[in-house]
Automatic annotation (TrEMBL), chain A:
Keyword Transport: yes
Record keywords: Cell membrane, Membrane, Transmembrane, Transmembrane helix, Transport
InterPro entries: BP-dependent_transpt_permease, MetI-like, MetI-like_sf, OppC_N
Region of interest: Disordered: 1-26
Topological category with respect to the lipid bilayer: Multi-pass membrane protein
Residue ranges occupied by any ABC transmembrane type-1 domain in the UniProt entry: 103-295
UniProt record similarity statement: Belongs to the binding-protein-dependent transport system permease family.
Subcellular locations according to the entry: Cell membrane
Species of provenance: Antiquaquibacter soli
UniProt name for this protein: ABC transporter permease
UniProtKB/TrEMBL annotation, chain B:
Species assigned in the record: Antiquaquibacter soli
Domain ABC transmembrane type-1, residue spans: 132-344
Region (Disordered): 1-28
Residue ranges of the TM segments: 34-56, 132-159, 171-196, 221-242, 287-305, 325-351
Alphabetical keyword list: Membrane, Transmembrane, Transmembrane helix, Transport
Family label: Belongs to the binding-protein-dependent transport system permease family.
Name under which the protein is recorded: ABC transporter permease
Location of the protein in the cell: Cell membrane; Membrane
Membrane topology, as annotated: Multi-pass membrane protein
InterPro entries: MetI-like, MetI-like_sf
């Protein structure tokens, strides 16, 4: 899996890092080595730590959050105090608790929408890369169309038609608009792998195209797929927050996007509650950054030149 | 691009010439075939985008037209002509789909999108043509600035790899590009607008100004555009830095760069005239695609700053279920991005003869 995108001159470097052929490598060994490569990258390590923090926050929200997410008997628009570290909202809810509960939505949407986008990208990208001729041209056109149509306006329009769908609707919208990029990346990699000897060998041994694509070619692209998952998840988290900020999601649920929606609608700008404006956006930015940072390490799996500590 | 022209000339003239003569000779003489093919593809994409805009409301559950008509009826009696226009646009099942489609295409070609519900009795075309210049100027200028600045920083990061000059722009860039547009906008609005009172908090021009081609209005509009512009710049800069850095690093490993270094050329010359010059092309392709993201972000930014561009109008159209306006705006936004991509494609073919295959 480390040999894929290399030009010839790096061949010696690759040979050293690749398992001897013959017995297939133990999946756990591969996983451990992959994780090791990611972890060895300083930026990716930082990203993993931040991501772990938010995941733990989301899982243990009921234990960590001082109050319920929609518990609203407190003073309205209060400043920070020992009882409410980040103050309260205009509806009298605790900002810190909402922030902690809100992590659940962002992580969930990022995970599900990212995974579904990647699934579509893998299915389309690999079949597309393996097909030739007219059908490939047609898929090419469709993918390019999806790439070139601006994502957020399309999401807004679809969300406007599907008004009031909540999280499920947001996930659907994000997947519809988010799969094309990954499909294109995976397709070009499939195309370059298609002419390799192991694929030719599989063709001659009479394997069906489906098996060749998904059993022979797919495992060689693990790092790209992981990379496009993190990319899609980042985009999904940002898109979800954006749609909810515009009030196009279900504004009764508590998420970082809806917190900012309500903050703007209740004139937090005028009342000077900077924590209410600052905190949810910072969380979105940190979570999205963590995924981008992890991708620096994922890049290093397939392209040793991008690994840290090694000069060009 | 400026990085290339800013480099000192003379020292490295000879290797450049060699490279040029070695470039694939066959089709580079005639770019017209390439341009014609691109125009054909552009028209096809345009048609597809227009068609998507037609199909979308018809795929959705319920009929938006009914909702729209009900909404319009609240404002008073609906004339037959208006009713027919709405039905044509939103797909009430009268006439078969093909007839509706032909009618819709006719509307698109004549830019006749009917009357806006929200801003009745203004027509959709009037509203769009007032809003479009603001967004085009704002997004266009900021994107070009971000591209130049981000590319330069990316070159620097790749060249000084492993030092703080690399780490700071890349980690900073990754962090900044993860900022939600609307959040950056809210923070800037809060601090620069409300707390420090440096900039106006909403609108594209002051309450006393009227849009005209005068110096005063220009200054006023510029003053109002600074905060939205800075927001877009902050959020989109990171992508350019990372993109340029990632194409630059493999380029720096190429033989001709090593050769240039071995020849004892000045590091700056090697970085800018050899490596960056070749690394910038792949980055240019993503220019067109990234533009879609910036346009999307500008919708959120305009909403926060109450900036009367296309995004703000789209937001208003959506919240008021003003479907004709919404459809026309979506079409215009897509069209702008398509045209920008088309221009980049043509430029790419001019700059890199190898792509004209």
């Amino acid at each position: 899996m480390t040999t894929t995108r290399q030009p010839m001159r790096d061949a010696t470097q690759d040979i050293r890092t690749v398992q001897p052929t013959g017995a297939p490598p133990n999946p756990w060994q591969v996983f451990a080595r992959t994780a090791g490569t990611i972890w060895s990258n300083g930026k990716a390590r930082l990203g993993l730590i931040i991501l772990a923090f938010f995941v733990l926050l989301a899982i243990f929200a009921p234990l960590i959050a001082p109050y319920g997410a929609t518990e609203n008997g407190f003073d309205r628009s209060a400043d920070a105090s020992p009882e409410h570290w980040l103050g309260t909202t205009a509806a009298g809810e605790d900002v810190l608790s909402q922030l902690i509960w809100g992590a659940q939505i962002s992580i969930f949407v990022g995970l599900v929408a990212g995974a579904l986008s990647t699934l579509v990208a893998v299915l389309v990208g690999l079949s597309w890369g393996y097909t030739r001729g007219f059908i490939a041209d047609v898929i090419n056109f469709i993918v390019n169309l999806f790439l070139v149509i601006p994502g957020l306006p399309l999401m807004i329009v679809i969300a406007a038609y599907l008004s009031g769908g909540g999280i499920g609707m947001i996930i659907v919208v994000v997947v519809i608009t988010g799969w094309a990029w990954g499909a294109r990346v995976l397709r070009s990699q499939t195309q370059s792998l298609r002419s390799r000897d192991f694929v030719t060998a599989a063709v001659f041994s009479g394997e069906r195209p489906f098996r060749i694509v998904f059993r022979e070619i797919l495992p060689n692209m693990t790092s790209l797929i992981v990379g496009s998952f993190f990319g899609a998840a980042t985009a999904a988290i940002l898109a979800e927050a954006g749609l909810e900020f515009l009030g196009l999601g279900d504004s009764s649920i508590v998420s970082w996007g809806t917190m900012l929606f309500w903050a703007q609608n209740s004139n937090a700008l005028l009342t000077g509650q900077w924590a209410l404006l600052f905190a949810p956006g910072l969380c979105i930015a940190l979570l999205a950054t963590s995924l981008t940072l992890i991708n620096f390490g994922v890049d290093g799996i397939s392209n040793p030149r991008l690994r840290e500590g090694k000069q060009r | 691009m400026t990085s290339v022209t800013a480099a000192p000339r003379g020292v490295d003239a000879d290797p450049e010439v060699d490279e040029k003569t070695e470039a694939p000779p066959s089709r580079s003489g005639n770019p017209w075939g390439y341009i014609l093919r691109k125009i054909g593809l552009f028209l096809l994409t345009l048609w597809a985008a227009v068609t998507v805009n037609f199909i979308l409301p018809r795929l959705m559950p319920g009929t938006p037209a009914d909702a729209a008509l009900a909404r319009l009826a609240q404002n008073g009696p609906v004339s037959e002509a208006t009713k027919a226009a709405i039905e044509a646009q939103l797909g009430v099942p009268t006439g078969n789909l093909f007839e509706q489609y032909i009618q819709y295409l006719g509307q698109v070609v004549t830019l006749n999108f009917g009357v806006s519900y929200t801003f009745y009795p203004q027509t959709v075309s009037e509203l769009v043509s007032t809003a479009l210049p603001y967004t085009l100027v704002l997004v266009g200028l900021v994107t070009i600035i971000a591209f130049i600045l981000g590319t330069l920083l990316g070159v620097l990061a790749a060249w000084k790899r492993g030092t703080w000059l690399d780490t700071l722009p890349t980690v900073g860039g990754a962090f900044m590009s993860a900022f939600p547009y609307f959040w950056t906008a809210l923070l800037l609005l809060f601090f620069a607008g409300y707390v420090w009172r440096l900039f106006p908090t909403s609108g594209a021009y002051g309450p006393t100004a009227t849009p005209a081609f005068t110096w005063d209005f220009f200054v006023d509009a510029l003053y109002h555009a600074i905060l939205p512009a800075v927001t877009i710049l902050i959020t989109s800069l990171g992508g350019w830095i990372l993109g340029m850095r990632n194409t630059m690093i493999p380029t720096l490993g190429d033989d001709y760069v090593a050769f240039a270094e071995a020849n004892g050329l000045k590091p700056r010359t090697v970085a800018l005239r050899y490596a960056a010059r070749n690394a910038i092309l792949p980055n240019l392709t993503s220019f067109g695609l990234a533009l879609g993201g910036v346009v999307g972000g500008s919708i959120l930014v305009e909403q926060v700053f109450g900036y009367p561009g296309v995004g703000y109008l789209l937001f208003n159209a959506v919240t008021n279920q003003d479907y004709p306006l919404m459809q026309a705006l979506f079409l215009m936004i897509t069209l702008s991005v398509l045209v920008a991509n088309f221009i980049v494609d043509i430029l790419y073919g001019v700059l890199d003869p190898r792509t004209r295959r």
